[in-house]
Amino acid sequence: MTTTIPRPAETQPGSTQLADTAVAIESVSKTFRLPRQQYSTLKERALHPFRSTEYDELRAVRDISVDIAEGEFFGIVGRNGSGKSTLLKCVAGIYGVQSGRIAIAGRLSPFIELGVGFNPDLTARDNVIINAIMLGISRRQARERFDHVLAFAELEEFVDLKLKNYSSGMLVRLAFATALEVDADIFLIDEVLAVGDAAFQQKCFEEFFRLKREGKTIVFVSHDMFSVERFCDRAMLMERGEMIEIGPPPEIARAYHKLNFGELPHEQADQPSPDHGTAITAAWFENSTGERVTSTSREEALSMCFEVRLQEELLDPVFAATLRNELGHTIVVARSDQHGALSGSFRSGETLTVRFGMPNWLSASRYTLTPSVAREGTGADALALVEDMASVMIHGGATGGILELPMNIRIDRT
Asked: Which fold has domain 5-37+55-261?
């Protein structure tokens, strides 16, 4: 059923009218029935005719309600098995629902399990035209847009190669480029960038920005909190089929990291306005010469730095720096009170620069710095904390580990 429903409680920025709802999800639940006994032969089924009626129930989605506005970039995040992809497939109509209702206002283009329906024995040219027609494009339009699809996927030289000879990355690129040509109002995107090199991912990001500028509605399922914060207007966190939290992407990203990786050294504090309260005003990385850097090579000493402006007197405050990698894993937590350094006594109005110097044993990747300051004690009473305030790219050879530790290697004959 396709309808346009007024969004009940929110308006678009700068608008005095209620925004229309593109996707309305009302009390939706989805349960899978899993047979306890799997039969592989006819004899087994004949000997145990009643076992097939015994099932376990998996409640993949539990009473989810959310309205997604027209032109909104909406993120759905959660751990594996949380139900986010199942919910997206319910919206796409791939799965039916046990209870509740989903209303769609506009034409859908699902980027779910890209490449399904491609014939491996046909060439890229034939597959693109056939799938474009299946997605609702006329034969004439499919032929007109074919060259653009191949150019976007960067597969011009493989146009006459059968798909069974494509790599998985080439296949996803072709399917993604084909789906982009659909004249849709609503795009459902489910982790389609997991395959593809960095250059192609950047090209996809640029397409996301284009779709967003054109006012398209996008529902985006991802584990990548950096992408969610970069693109999404709102986000929702799911766990065990339930909606845990919905709100601004930075808050949802913080809740996701907490769910996966535990607490930061301080709980999040409300960052005060520039004119009131202790605040972290800047953060950066420095190399061994004190130069601010956004990229550096392995084994070059690195300092995590931030500036704090105090608006109250403090005795031995706890300064902390948390370093995370691109996946959100906490790699380093440095606290002033755990490294034998009492901070001292500070007056209101002072501006402090805090530096945590360390040997750079990090593997090649992008890392983010979360600085924080708390009152004396356990560090739970935070005065200021800013998530992922600065970032640095470490480049150089990598063995695949998180850290590239110095090693003393000895080989003895026995």
From this structure: Rossmann fold (3.40.50)
